[in-house]
Write a structure and sequence with these properties.
- Helix content is 44%, strand content 15%.
- It is an alpha+beta fold and 575 residues long.
- The chain folds into 3 domains: 3-272 and 402-444, no CATH class; 277-397, no CATH class; 449-574, no CATH class.
- It has a 6-stranded antiparallel sheet, with helices on both faces. The protein has a 5-stranded antiparallel sheet with strand order 18-17-16-19-20, with helices on one face.
- Strand 17 (542-546) and strand 18 (550-554) form a beta hairpin.
- Helix 1 packs across helix 23 (439-448), helix 20 packs across helix 21 and helix 27 packs across helix 28.
- The chain is elongated.
């Protein structure tokens, strides 16, 4: 491996957000690692999913959403994976991206987002303000095994993960459990968020644990408004697909250009809606400051009755009925007679009146002429607020995402072609056959941590250089005391078979096989004395870490290796 390859392949082990940003193929490699994992395949045995066998993909996706919400929580604890130094990370990446480009697009290195993205400073929003300008936290992405292992941590009753972890989990589960073809799954990353676009029906966007359909995107609720923030306000840095990926900063792209054009068209269609009765109500639900200019009309026994918009939204709050959807009449039945007038409220425009104008004049709010006409039409009621009201209504009805420019140099790459009808073993064998043809497939085995199929040097490098949690946890303890505590951990690994946890996973979850414990102790010693030579010998059952003293562990992993760590050089030979 070249030094650049070693950096990339070791990043497939640690999978921090900043590493994914620099090496965009890592994103899909984690999806493939999760697809290879037996954990998600066991979901198929869940009685609820078995009952949905033969049902539509949409039905299965909706059930999966509930399962994910029940089994995982969103976690953005900046202390979970420890701290690093800004200059260290920038030095790592200097041969791939300039510090200026990284700073423009990563919150850890100075990116602050659009002024309207949050009501507070982004660094303070994420808790970054408690660190000085040089100390920054790792945001590491978890495999499904590491997500499940959060149950072992104090304060957690379910699995957990940050947004990249949840989006890659959703992508893998959509394929394995719901049968959604890989060609219909697009991963979309911005500097502060990660989500997916599922190309099914009108489109579905994943947002942390939730699935957002097109009607939900435009329903005007606070939770939907928050789901829109990334695509409304941030540059999309990466779009990843089974054919490849495209990055906003790199001139070369591997995604199939026709698939990227298709994605852009489908996403834009999802993000655009028309002005109708329902969307007027949805807009007013979100922008309540304009409700005072509107009223709603009820038709009953040939009579018209009028209610102020803010009054009707007050009835809607806490109710399961909504304005202008199929439950509208039931909501109107709940309104007290004293809140109705038999004549229109003075100085308020009726929503029916507005829509009659739109239909008669064939007014398109997505054109400057259409917005001007609408603003002039409601001006007698809204006064100076007419223009901003219509402008914001148009923005509500159309999000214009800042996607990577499609004017790239496209490098044809053999796509990952998986069939949802294949068994897990067939998928693993297929991906194994693709490793020499597709870098993402090769990297997937490193994210998967199968040490029988990987060069050990990237794993060793990641363990020795990016394990701040274990180093901090035992900072004030002697080596013998650390060894004793590691020996007291249950001899369980969060990864089955010959797959290995990193030292910080052992430290965070308090479990580990003997070889994982040996790596943990080695990482701590290396952090303290980088110049000290270390040897780790494993015969498949017994592991000995040789430092100033020898430290013995027992292993059930069956891995046989002689490892040497000296002056930043890592060697691994078969035993």
């Amino acid at each position: 491996m070249t030094s650049g390859d070693l950096e990339k392949y070791s990043s497939a082990i640690t999978l921090s957000d900043m590493e994914v940003f620099v090496f965009p193929e890592l994103m899909y490699s984690l999806v493939l690692a999760n697809i290879m994992s037996p954990v998600i395949w066991k979901w198929r045995e869940n009685p609820t999913f078995q009952k949905l066998e033969g049902k539509s993909i949409y039905r299965r996706l909706m059930r999966m959403r509930q399962y994910v919400m029940d089994e995982y929580e969103f976690n953005l604890d900046l202390d979970t994976w420890g701290l690093t130094h800004k200059d260290v990370e920038l030095n790592r990446f200097k041969d791939f991206l300039s510090p200026e480009d990284i700073a423009r697009s990563n919150a850890l290195f100075g990116y602050t987002g659009d002024t309207y993205y949050f009501d507070v400073d982004i660094r303070r929003h994420f808790g970054l303000d408690k660190y000085n300008s040089d100390i920054i936290p790792y945001w590491k992405t978890e495999t499904v095994e590491a997500m499940d292992a959060f149950r072992l941590k104090a304060g957690y009753t379910t699995g957990a993960g940050e947004c990249v972890s949840l989006s890659t989990l959703y992508a893998a589960a959509a394929f394995i459990v719901c049968g959604l073809p890989l060609e219909d799954i697009y991963l979309v990353l911005t500097p502060l968020h990660s989500q997916n676009f599922f190309d099914i029906s009108d489109g579905i966007i994943t947002n942390n644990r939730r699935l957002v359909t097109k009607p939900m995107w435009f329903n005007g609720t606070e939770i939907s408004d928050k789901a829109q923030r990334a695509l409304r306000n941030e540059q999309v840095t990466i779009v990843a697909h089974h054919t490849g990926q495209i990055h906003c900063f790199y001139n070369q792209a591997t995604i199939a250009p026709q698939r990227y054009r298709h994605f852009r068209q489908r996403l834009q269609a999802y993000l655009t809606s028309h002005l109708n009765h329902l969307n007027v109500a949805n807009f007013l639900r979100l922008r309540s400051q304009y409700q005072k200019y509107f009223q709603f009309c009820r038709h009953r026994r040939g009579e018209r009755m009028f209610v102020k918009a803010e009054k009707l939204f007050g009835y809607e709050h806490g109710s399961r009925y909504r304005i202008y959807d199929e439950t509208f009449e039931k909501l109107l039945d709940d309104v007290s007679e004293e809140d109705y007038l038999i004549y229109p409220h003075t100085g308020r425009i009726c929503c029916e009146q507005l829509m009659a104008f739109v239909e008669h004049e064939k007014t398109d709010i997505h054109t400057p002429l259409g917005r001007d006409r609408l603003a002039r039409f409601i001006a007698p009621y809204a006064g100076q607020d007419a223009e901003p009201c219509i402008r914001e209504m148009a923005e509500f009805l159309q999000t214009l995402p800042q996607l990577p420019d499609d004017n790239k140099q496209y490098q044809a790459a053999e796509p990952i072609m998986l069939d949802s009808g294949w068994s897990r073993q067939e998928i693993v064998e297929y991906l194994e056959s693709m490793r020499s043809k597709n870098t993402t497939a090769d990297l997937a085995f490193y994210a998967f941590r199968d040490m029988t199929r990987c060069d050990w040097r990237p794993f060793i490098k990641a363990a020795m250089e990016r394990s701040p949690v274990s180093a901090e946890k035992y900072r004030n303890k002697g080596v013998d005391d650390i060894y004793s505590q590691l020996c007291q951990f249950p001899d369980d690994s969060i990864y089955e078979g010959p797959r290995l946890a990193q030292p910080d996973e052992v430290a965070n979850y308090g479990v580990g096989d003997g070889i994982e414990k040996a790596f943990s102790l080695a990482a701590i010693l290396h952090q303290r004395q980088p110049e000290q030579p270390l040897k780790l010998d494993s015969d498949g059952k017994n592991v000995i870490l040789r430092a100033e003293s020898d430290y013995a562990f027992s292993s059930a992993k069956g891995l046989k290796k002689h490892i040497r760590i000296e002056q930043g050089a890592y060697q691994a030979h078969d035993a």
